[in-house]
From TrEMBL:
E.C. no: 3.2.2.31
Entry similarity comment: Belongs to the Nth/MutY family.
Catalysed reactions, semicolon-separated: Hydrolyzes free adenine bases from 7,8-dihydro-8-oxoguanine:adenine mismatched double-stranded DNA, leaving an apurinic site
PROSITE patterns in UniProt: ENDONUCLEASE_III_2 (PS01155)
Domain named HhH-GPD: residues: 36-188
Species this protein is from: Marisediminicola antarctica
Name of the featured protein: Adenine DNA glycosylase
Superkingdom field: Bacteria
Cofactor: [4Fe-4S] cluster
Gene Ontology terms describing biological process: base-excision repair; mismatch repair
Amino acid sequence: MSIAPDLSDWFRANARDLPWRRPGFTAWGTLVSEFMLQQTPVARVIPRLAEWLERWPSPSALAAAPPGDAVRAWASLGYPRRALNLHACAVAIAELHGGVVPEDVDQLLALPGVGPYTARAVAVFAYGHRHPVVDTNVRRVLARAVDGLGEPAPPSTRRDLAAMDALLPVTLTDARVFNAAAMELGAIVCTARAPKCDECPIRDACAWRAEGYPVYLGARKPVQKRFEGSDRQVRGLILAELRAVDVPVPASELTAVWADGTQRSRAIAGLLSDGLAVRTDAGYALPGH
DNA sequence: AACGCGTGGTG
DNA sequence: TCACCAAGCGT
């Protein structure tokens, strides 16, 4: 009953051909892709990633651009703070690391918008270091295969990293493949809804299967708050307005995108506070240099 | 630790 | 249709 060898063999035979798995893909490309993949599906990332790397092929190239250009190029990937953080990363890498993406996990963690997942993903996939990489897919795979639970407990970085570390093969190459394999299994076989257990390469070792696929019984919180009418929706609408034009947008024009003044003001204040927008004499705009 | 933060595809 | 979901992070 093994997990790592079978899963890794399956991955070597079945891995999707994704841009960040191409030979010669740069560490900068890996960092950009990981930022874009934070809560955004692969299919939506791929075209934006290609555009981004053609325009800004290095951290220094992005660092030289105004942050507003990054926010605009982020387009509809969602959570535009990531664009701002990625730009800030580029500046930090240019100024503190000689324009080279650092490979040390602690140095990566010190970069804005880089957390436990992204730091290890870059260290492992771009540089071949040996660390456990745990994302939402891996948490689900381990919950099922190891713990026999239909869905994972609430995330705990410390516990989750320890659980993956316990399964990690010894050699650099095997560890990297296993990390990628666990993510891939969660993404295309051991999915959140309707997992394809019949096609699973580790079904014979799966604790969840062995126990008859028990369903989770506890109460569940809503995955997300309602989007319609939310501050998130209003922020998104206002930012779309700022992205669409090259000149400051007068406050009077923003009344057209959301009528409720209280909520509109709150959204604008939030955008200003996050640095996603700035106030000028002529109105609101994306941040410049 | 729980919550806020976008956007669009899908069963 | 409409909840649910998608390679998280910062606070």
